[in-house]
Amino acid sequence: MSRRFQLGIFVVILLLMPWLAGATEPGWLGMSVKASIQGENDPVLKTITIIEIEAGSPAAVANLAVGDSIIEIENVPVSGCKASEAKQLMTKAPGEKLTLRLRRTDGTTYMTVLVAGTNPT
Are 11 and 45 in contact (CB under 8 A)? Predict the structure, then answer.
């Protein structure tokens, strides 16, 4: 399996993770990400970068920006984190909070809390 294919699968999993975790109604964050991983059987994350933010979404309300790198999820560093663990950490039902530490493209870091919403579509 190619790395590009694995990366695509990981992005889809991130978008669908609340549903995969058995939530009756998946939480919606309103962002798409690109992950850089290492390994094939039990991949480990190197980086997660935001590539799209939907207007009016929880990600937009929290002032996340395209190009920001997620460096911590719920106080767990992304670099070296197993992809499966990151998936669990980011899985939220509507109304649940997600704490992220991010790095802007200019190098500044910030922490924010997103409240998962209900997907409007």
Answer: no
